[in-house]
Specification:
271 residues, alpha+beta, endopeptidase fold (from Nostoc punctiforme), Muramoyl-pentapeptide Carboxypeptidase, domain 1, 6-stranded antiparallel beta sheet, two-stranded antiparallel ribbon, 8 helices, globular
Length: 271
């Protein structure tokens, strides 16, 4: 039986955890505090094979949410409850789309929901709802001022984009989708449909940052700051990113036009 309190209690216990300046003292709440995006959350999920690559050194708000579900239910069941049907759950945009594809995304908050925040109409931050009143919500968010933090918002706040409703089993609506046992050595077939925009020189925002992160993971420099020996994606599609896109396209026998369209997105996500 899965219930919201499982995840809420885990999230509340992490309040005060500070991200680290380097890959040291990851399990200590306050030691080695910094702003280089190193956390125990990304380390643990990388070991569990959660995503399409390691996420330490990158923005970690969504990684924190996933970790709470992972600690509560394990990798397979945790991702099922979060409606994650693909390896892109470390990105807020993709996590919201996973809920949307299941018909479990709206603007009506419940305790245990995954809340998504927006800026300029684009989702870029997330957390866990731990309290709900008629006028407010209380959240626990990773990567909030470089730490795990408890925050309160008016429910009418335009910063709130919407809420993803996990598949907890303590309600009749969720009981229709019981956990399915995984029988080794079968590999589950996953179908994931994600709408991705065309990106080119001059574009900016969270989607650009996601594309840059994929390029950086594959060894391409995109012009971002180097922190603790690692490049950080800056979300600005400039000449350096364009050059790296062209190099990647050439390597994959694609038209080297420096524009990230459908074919280049596919190559980035599957290479």
């Amino acid at each position: 039986m899965s219930k919201p309190s499982d995840v809420v209690n885990i999230a509340l216990a992490e309040v005060g955890y500070q991200e680290k300046a380097s890959n040291a003292y990851l399990d200590d709440k306050t030691a080695n505090a910094g702003s280089a995006n190193w956390t125990k959350y990304a380390r643990d999920l990388a070991a569990a094979g959660y995503y399409n690559g390691g996420k330490n050194g990158f923005a970690w708000c969504d990684v924190f949410v996933d970790w709470c579900f992972f600690k509560a239910y394990g990798a397979v069941e945790g991702q099922r409850i979060q409606c994650q049907s693909g390896p892109l759950g470390a990105g807020c945009i993709y996590s919201a789309q996973y809920y949307q594809q299941k018909g479990r995304y709206d603007r009506n908050p419940k305790v245990g929901d995954q809340v998504f925040f927006q800026s300029g109409g684009e989702i870029g931050h997330t957390g866990i709802v731990v309290e709900v009143t008629d006028s407010t919500i209380v959240t626990v968010e990773g990567n909030s001022s470089d730490q795990v933090k408890k925050n309160t918002y008016n429910r009418s706040n335009s910063y709130i984009a919407g809420y993803g409703h996990p598949l907890y089993s303590d309600s009749s609506a969720d009981a229709e989708e019981p956990a399915k046992p995984v029988t080794a050595p079968e590999t589950p077939t996953v179908t994931c449909v994600v709408s991705l925009p065309q990106l080119k020189n001059g574009a900016e925002g969270v989607t650009v940052k996601n594309a840059q992160t994929l390029l950086i993971l594959k060894g391409y420099y995109c012009g971002g700051r180097i922190v603790s020996g690692r490049e950080t994606a800056d979300g600005e599609f400039g000449p350096t990113t364009e050059k790296s896109v062209k190099s990647f396209q050439s390597k994959k026998n694609l038209t080297a036009d420096g524009i990230i369209g459908a074919a280049t997105w596919k190559a980035l996500l599957t290479a």
